[in-house]
Specification:
Blueprint lengths: L1 E3 L6 H12 L2 E4 H14 L7 H7 L5 E6 L3 E6 L2 E2 L7 H10 L3 H17 L2 E5 L2 H5 L6 E5 L2 H14 L6 H17 L12 E4 L5 H15 L3
Helix pairs in contact: 1-9, 2-4, 7-8
The protein binds 2'-deoxycytidine-5'-monophosphate.
């Protein structure tokens, strides 16, 4: 199953919940891009420098571990960076590193291997279009930019790291533009994706709709 869409549309919480319900392994591919971004930040490489970025890739070893409840933990060269990759700084850097074809190729193989070895529900930006174009179900989850910034604002407050709403909204719009306009694997719904707009739906309604869409198309 492929779930794509812009940041803050609720992909990760919904995909994780749907995975639990349908017994599918949830794979958060944004976390993989974030892990690469954290490494580049630590090495002081600007996400826009293509050659320097490509040179770093062989130094990066990424692994995923699953804690009870389907929680995906990210290991960067053996270090658990699950919480460190959730900062706004890493969000912006992830959007920049994700524009590089070298990075996308490097991560493509890893994502496909996950899908070959497990029944997955994978969320990202290009899962239905590039990573798993043969996926049985493709859902493009979206919501208005204000609704998405508001959700992120609430999430950061809950985590104890509040941020200014206006700044979050501006960053949401900028990241949307970067993700939708990049030359390689831009954010767009696959031709055969079901588009689900969650602006007016709460969590339970969205989850129910996702499960319906999956059940209509598979025997799950
Ligand atoms: O979903 P997220 O916010 O954790 O993703 C972080 C960044 O990674 C986002 O700006 C776009 C990029 N990304 C991508 O290009 N392709 C994916 N499959 C997943 C994420």
């Amino acid at each position: 199953m492929a779930i794509d869409g812009p940041s803050g549309a609720g992909k990760s919480t919904l995909a994780r919940a749907a995975g639990k319900k349908l017994n599918l392994l949830y794979v958060d591919t944004g976390a993989i891009y974030r892990t690469v971004a954290l490494y580049t930040l630590r090495r002081g490489v600007e996400g826009k420098e293509a050659a320097a970025m490509a040179a770093l890739l062989p130094e990066i070893h990424i692994a995923m571990q699953y804690a009870p409840g389907g929680l995906q933990r990210m290991l960067l060269n053996g270090e658990d960076v699950t919480d460190l990759i959730r900062t706004q700084e890493v969000s912006m850097a992830a959007s920049a590193v994700a524009t590089h074809p070298e990075v996308r190729d490097f991560l493509l193989k890893m994502q496909r291997e996950m899908a070959e070895n497990h029944s997955v529900i994978m969320d990202g930006r290009d899962i239905g279009t590039v990573v798993l174009p043969w996926a049985a179900v493709k859902i493009f989850l979206t919501a208005g930019s204000e609704a998405r910034a508001r959700r992120r604002w609430l999430e950061l407050q809950r985590r104890g790291t509040p941020q200014d709403f206006t700044q979050l909204l501006q960053e949401t719009i900028r990241r949307d533009e970067d993700d939708a306009n990049r030359a390689i694997a831009p954010l767009r719904p696959a031709a055969d994706a079901v588009v689900l707009d969650t602006t007016e739906l709460n969590f339970e309604e969205s989850l129910q709709r996702i499960i319906e869409i999956i059940r209509e198309r598979t025997g799950l």
